[in-house]
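From the pipeline queue, job 12 of 40. The input is one protein chain; the requested action is below.

Action: predict structure.
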Amino acid sequence: MNTEQKHPGSPLRAVIGEPTLHFFLIAAVIFALYAITQGGNENLLEISQREIDARIFLQELSRGEELSAEQRQLITSTYVEEQILVQEALSMGLDNDVRIHDMLAQKMRHVLSANVIQPSAEELAEFYRRNSPRYETMAMVTADEVVFNSTEPLAAEVMALLQSQAEPDVLLAVEAGTVSVLPRVNPVDLSNIFEDEFSQNVFAASINQWIGPFVSNRGQHWLRVTQKAAARIPPLDEIIDRVRLDWIGVEEELLLQQEIDKLWERYSIVIIDDV
């Protein structure tokens, strides 16, 4: 059984706010019109359903769960786009490249998106304004970490020293252990090292306040924050190169998708049910 594959349009539409339901309704209308108007298209491209199913299977295997209908459609559309780009690369004589077809598709993507311009100062500032949350840095602390060798309750003398915010060398003169510094760690870093609750307690603590114990196979850990840095969004001039690259990436993807959309119109896509 043969089925024609419609062109679903730019995946970036979901990013810029178009509802998924509208997307599929519009795609269905486009497919109907396309089937009527493109019947005589001489660029017939046959797509193997087996190859599509293999990609879907690999994705499901890596995710450990069944893909949704929307995700399956996206994989299908991506595969069709790749095959169109391969055909265009071959028509341009790029088949002399010794690499495999997916490399040809990537080469065509670069060819199609080669005209991306640099942003103006106004465009860069507007992009930064609209996307500033993505550049927010997490809160960070620098902390001293003392690990006492014993997992047993500490002596009263040691506890008194901890409460009085004693220096690490003073503590280790009374109780055997080691000291190290955790430089500029964020809550996620600290949670990965210890656990969420302990990380939250450390970030909520005052400067020089000892927090603990956290017991591990190394002993019991005590941390004290020596420096704090609040979460912040860096000003544009501080991260301008990163913002410029992000702007170019978005514009390149938009331009690339526009060019791919045009290529879709030149092909009649037939998916062969060869499972």
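Job complete. The CA atoms of residues 128 and 266 lie 37 Å apart.
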